[in-house]
Amino acid sequence: MHKGNLEKYIKLSMFQVTNKRMGKNNSEVKQAYNAIFQNTLFEIQILGRLLQHDETGPISANIAGKFLFSENVNTGISEYVFEYLKFVVQLANSLPITTDGKRVELLEKNQLKKVFSNNRNKDEFLTYRSDIKPALSFMPQELKISLENSIIIAKQSQSVKLKPILRSKSEKKISNLRKNYIPHSVHPKDTEEHFENVLSTENTNLLNVISDVHSNDGKLPFFNKNFNIMVGDISDSKVTNGDIKGLYVIGNHELVDVLPSSRQELQEKSGNHF
């Protein structure tokens, strides 16, 4: 479903890196497309980016670093995905919960049976009873071993001992990776006309967390009737929506929004005092 958008993102990424415009049948574009499915951690990122596209609109900033494996390996993002997967698996084996990736539910006594009934596919849910061996076969060997060890530790422990992802622990490794990283920035308004939404922009998350929308037409490109937590960089314009409920945390783009658009306006608002 997302192949058309994905090919466009790859072509844009290739243009940023090589300064050459390429068609979707170009061998380098095909090679970059196939590379996505050769690394599970990278594929997870790509899927997340495409879902993000449908939820918040065209993706801005470092396009090449997000869609080309050759650039992505220098961003350090895979290391974060690596740690997050370990955390989620250990969490499911330490606490009486079930999750399908969108929501987390507490498992009450006798509720586990209910989770796997009502025509719901049990493979869509992660609990302490889930068999993740098929998924582990796709993971890098280092992650596979770490996940297996996490499950053993979680099942043997009487108390929950979840290890948070410590920036201090991974900072040096990721900093070394990012030495060769070249950021590529593209404003959403420069890419919006080339991409289409594949999935609905409405979602039913009870707690809907959104960031980096960078709306430039005064509208929010998603709808959620529940509680929205908008965590910065929502707008590159004056955005209004009376139907959205929740919390809004301002980011640097919101601060720029309220700045005067010209020196004359700045002087008028400041009373000629600097």
Number of strands: 5
Average per-residue pLDDT, rounded, comes to: 77
In whole angstroms, how far apart are the ends?
53 Å
Query: What level of helicity do the residues show?
Result: 40-55%
Oligomer: single chain
Low-pLDDT segments, ≥5 res? none
Strand order within the widest beta sheet: 3-4-5
Major β-sheet, in short?
3 strands, parallel
Q: Structural class from helices and strands? A: mainly alpha
N-to-C order of helices and strands: HHHHHHEEHHHHEEEHH
Please state the overall shape, judged from the principal axes of the Cα atoms.
Answer: globular
Q: How much beta, percentage-wise?
A: 5-15%
Radius of gyration (Å): 22 Å
Compute the number of helices: 12
Can you tell me about this structure?
- The protein is 43% helix and 7% strand.
- Helix 1 packs across helix 2, helix 3 crosses helix 6 and helix 6 runs parallel beside helix 9.
- The radius of gyration is 22 Å and the shape is globular.
- The protein contains twelve helices and five strands.
- Among the domains are: 100 residues, no CATH class; 75 residues, no CATH class.
- The strands form two sheets. Strands 3-4-5 form a three-stranded parallel sheet, with no helix packed on it. Strands 1-2 form a two-stranded antiparallel sheet.
- It has 274 residues and is mostly helical.
